[in-house]
């Protein structure tokens, strides 16, 4: 039986790494000049594609690691370090700059399907989110086979809720941008960055302790 703490931790981790609030202004820039219906369609398609990508890693992530001989403890350390880099970028504003560069490159190349790139990849289902998904899959599926599938099913459910929430925020991005303003978005992004840094350190510490124990 999964604890509420585990479920809450998974939700917060995915919310911080997907960062729907931080992606909202970039989504506005990507869809500038488009009608509300078109923006809604892009938001729904992008979050749907990102959900499929992350669900694939939730279901097969640890199996892929086993196949190539990487232990979950090693990946926990590597994933924790990657998440810490993401958190560092969030705190100092570099993540937003990189996202804007990716979106500008997409616009410059006149890509026909913004839902796939850069919205689904790499804005929503980027390396940090994929790493977090694999780590959470291992964490929630530990135990016997029955509880393991319950854990994975719970993670897929959390991903579905996150993508529904993200789609709603993107669709309402124009109104949200006016309400929060630049200062509000900066404060929230940096607070989420600090939280993600703490989670990243915990992942690294758990991985190191597991290595020492073995």
Based on secondary structure, the structural category is mainly alpha
Largest sheet: none
> Which term fits the overall shape?
globular
- Overall pLDDT level: 83
Count of distinct strands: 0
Tally of helical runs: 9
Series of H and E elements: HHHHHHHHH
Low-confidence stretches: 106-112
- Overall structural domain count: 1
What is the rounded distance between the termini? 27 Å
User: Helix amount, in percent?
Assistant: over 70%
Beta-strand fraction estimate = under 5%
Computed Rg: 17 Å
Describe the structure.
There is one protein chain. The protein has 9 helices and no strands. With 214 residues, it is mainly alpha-helical. It has one domain (55-213). Helix 3 crosses helix 6 (115-124) and helix 4 (72-91) crosses helix 7 (127-140). The chain is globular, with a radius of gyration of 17 Å. The two termini are 27 Å apart.
